[in-house]
């Protein structure tokens, strides 16, 4: 059984295109990589003959084939509550809580965001030939905040292109250890896999990739700071690694050297929050901006740290970040 058989006759404007590129333009609901796989498998022909993804097409060529029905990925839906910030037929934006794993993996076969999404969106469209949620970007298990999900292949491709073009505005909040002297700065240090510990990332990797983070001070306390970080690239663990490279690891990040908060309280997990995210809608092309409120555990630690702040620092506490300001 197949789904959506097709037959196209190439017009002059399509002359010279690669076959996979041409098909991606004709079938935008499917990714180019997926269509290339179907071409290699012989599911798509040119003039009745098998072809290759890079084959150049000519006017009058007949391109035909059929899209197989999507395959289930074997992940069970689970009724896990989701904090939804926005949803339409193409896009789902959630406020991910700390502690929630995004994808099933060894040690976390269930109870993940993917399990929750399959329950929330039982009619989730096929992506890459599979029935699976289109998570556009990831957050670490213990990082909270805004996370995007594409509900169909076309939306996934469009959003992935925005991330690749660095057209997404990504702003995080982080509580870091120690007192930064500057009020803003940039960390421009390449990041790659740690040379010894393969579960970690490092600025001293033998095969590092460009990574740029811009930060500015939000609040300063006696033994810690609240900073706002804009990600200009999207490397694994980027903020955590860059903060450690600055000598100010994120509070509670035991992997990268962040210990307790000092006087008054300890961090129950890494104090990193995906606060704001701006994109263009994947189909309507209108600008959208989303914000996830500071989670309770991070907010409670901010309140405690404010009590330890010096008088001159206390005068500039930001109500935008945390509405509750304890009395001196």
Detailed description of the structure:
The protein is α+β, with helices and mostly antiparallel strands. It folds into 3 domains: 67 residues, Structural Genomics Hypothetical 15.5 Kd Protein In mrcA-pckA Intergenic Region, Chain A (Roll), CATH 3.10.290.10; 92 residues, Pseudouridine synthase; 146 residues, Pseudouridine synthase (2-Layer Sandwich). Helices cover 19% and strands 28% of the residues. The protein is built from 7 helices and 19 strands. Strands 6, 7, 10, 11, 12, 13, 16, 17, 18 and 19 form a 10-stranded mixed beta sheet that branches. The protein has a 4-stranded antiparallel beta sheet with strand order 1-4-2-3. A 3-stranded mixed beta sheet has the order 5-9-8. Helix 1 crosses helix 2. The longest helix is centred in the middle third of the chain and has 12 residues. It is elongated, with a radius of gyration of 24 Å.
Helix tally? 7
Helical amount: 10-25%
Mean pLDDT: 88
First-last Cα distance: 71 Å
Task: From the alpha carbons, calculate the radius of gyration and give it in angstroms.
Answer: 24 Å
Q: What's the structural domain tally? A: 3
CATH homologous superfamily heading of the largest domain: Pseudouridine synthase
Number of β-strand runs: 19
Helix/strand order, N-terminal first: EHHEEEEEEHEEEEHEEEEEEHEEHH
State the gist of this model.
It contains seven helices and 19 strands. With 328 residues, the protein is an alpha+beta fold. The strands form four sheets. Strands 6, 7, 10, 11, 12, 13, 16, 17, 18 and 19 form a ten-stranded mixed β-sheet that branches. It has a four-stranded antiparallel β-sheet with strand order 1-4-2-3. The chain has a three-stranded mixed β-sheet with strand order 5-9-8.
